[in-house]
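Retro notes
What went well: the complex prediction finally ran end to end.
Inputs used:
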Amino acid sequence: MIVTSQASAPNADAPQAAQDCILCETPGGEVLWAGELARVVLVDEAAYPGFTRVICQRHAKEMTDLSAPDRTELMNLVWLVESVQRAVLSPDKVNVAALGNMVPHLHWHVIPRWRDDACFPDAIWAPARRKDGVGEGAERAGTRLAAYVEALRTRLSQLA
Amino acid sequence: MIVTSQASAPNADAPQAAQDCILCETPGGEVLWAGELARVVLVDEAAYPGFTRVICQRHAKEMTDLSAPDRTELMNLVWLVESVQRAVLSPDKVNVAALGNMVPHLHWHVIPRWRDDACFPDAIWAPARRKDGVGEGAERAGTRLAAYVEALRTRLSQLA
């Protein structure tokens, strides 16, 4: 379920939704949780099991378009995702990024990385270094994906 | 000036410095400001004038290795950088990322982007789409670089 009505948001300078914005018009993945400010979405990407996005519910473009409390609240969701990834998936590294060049609607990529994954140590947006399967790290994490989703849903459901 | 001694940091679980870590051993760019938790460094990258990094002073690997107050303090520096980039350089987008696959010492890339820059709309880690100069957006921003640095230094110097 995605919350799209936030007329009472204290600093809703950004429009609630924009035409032709895929993240206003679609969930952008399997929604694991949705609050007033943001939703948490599982990305279907075999090379990076557990790849998760934290997507702003408003059509804001940059973090500095949000109020300071909203920035902190949004980032707390990112850190929650990162901590569950580390606890359940044991990645070698977590990559966190808000780019939005193609879709200028605020969304954070939280990406577990393994030393033998497709692009490591490059960013996932670089050309793949390995094209023969997903690597042992990601493969092992893939077997933990259901546990990750369950743990993440549980932690998110405990939010005030 | 880089502050390296933080023995009294309240939650210094991470080591203060690690051997063979380039961000423990070198500034990592032109240091514009340094506090106890982080330093702000200008990156010399002609394609992205104003590219700035916020680098943790401790050898922490992930954001969730920091305490919640330290996370907020570090991100507030990132947002300060982003806001000065927007005010002075007028980028079409700002990209914010903590990857650290090659150098697992917490550092944030804050990257102003222009529609005609080398890689837009891809991440800067993707192959360049344009190799003929830096584009008008970045070129215009290049002429504002000194003003950006001055504005950023001023804002940083006003921090408590």
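What we learned: DSSP finds four helices and five strands in chain A.
What to try next: split runs per interface for comparison.
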